[in-house]
Structure prediction request, 304 residues.
Amino acid sequence: MFINPYENNNIDGGQWLKANFHTHAGTGENTCGHYEIEEVIAAYKGARYDVLTISNHDLFSDVQKYQEKYEMVIINGFEFSTDPHMLCIGNTGVIKGNHQDVINECRKQRGLVILCHPNWQRMQYWPWKDMADLKGYTGMEIFNSVIYRLNGKGLAADAWDFLLSQGKLVWGFGNDDFHRWHDIARSWNMIYAKRDKDSVMNSLSSGNFYVSTGMILKEFSFNDGTIRASAVSYNGFVTENKYIFIGKGGEILKEQTGEYGEYKMDGSELYVRVQVVSEHGAMLWTQPIYDEERFKKQEDLWKV
Ligand SMILES: [Zn+2]
Ligand SMILES: [Zn+2]
Prediction:
C-alpha cells in the first residue's frame, strides 16, 4: 500500500505553518550568532514565520519566553557540532556523545534529529554510509541556503534519493542556517499542523510538510494511483511551472510544464516525490509517497 504523508492535512484547526529550524542567534558567551536572540525572533516574525528553533553550536537555547510575545511556536534545540552536524529540536537540553547516542538521547527527551547540510564543503560531508547506518533520525536538510555563500552545495537531494532508495524513511527539510540578516527566509518548511508544539512535532514525524524556496503548494492529491500537484508563487498570476516526478535512484519519471503536474503510478514504484520549479527559479519539494511494505520503516522513528 502506498502512503501519502499529506492525507491527514484536514485535521481540525490545522493550517500551513512556515518554519525554520536552523537559526544561530545570541551574542553572549559561547553563542555563535551575530545578533540578539530577540531581534532575530522578531525578524522571523516579520518574515511571516510561525515556527522557529534557535539552534546554536552545542548550546541549548531555551527561548520559550518569547512564544507568547511573538505569537509563534518556539521549539527549543541546538546544533550538535561534532562533524558531521545534526540538529536536535524539541528536546530538553544539550546532549553529548557519538552521533547514535545523541540521536537516542534526543528521542528519549521527546525531540527529533535532522542531519545538517550533507554537501557542505564537499560532496558527502555527511558520508552516505553513515547516513544509512544511523538509526532513528527524522530527516535531513535537502536544502540549506547558507551553504551557497559559504562553500559547497546547499542542495542534497542526491543523498535523500540514496536513502529513500534503500527504503529508509527520511523526510526532507529546508533551513536557512541563519547567521546574518541576509540569510533570512531563503528556504523553509511549510507544515500542516495546529499552532502548538505537539501538533507541529507530530506533523514533522509523519512527513506532513514540504520544503520551499518561494512557492506555495496549492493542491496535492493522491487518488487511484494518480499524484496531482499544483503550486503557485504567493499571489502572483503566473500559472506555468515545471513539475518533476522523481523515483528510486533519483530517476526522473515525468516532467510536465503547466498549471499542474500529474503522474499515474504503475504500482512498481518504491516512492515518488515531486519537485516544482517556478519561472524565477524558486523550488518546492514534497515528501515522497512511498510503498509501505517495501519501506523498512525505521522501527523506532517516533515512539515515545
Ligand atoms: Zn552546521
Ligand atoms: Zn548551523
Notes: The mean pLDDT is 95. The longest strand covers residues 216-223. The chain has two domains: 15-212, 216-291. The longest helix spans residues 37-46.
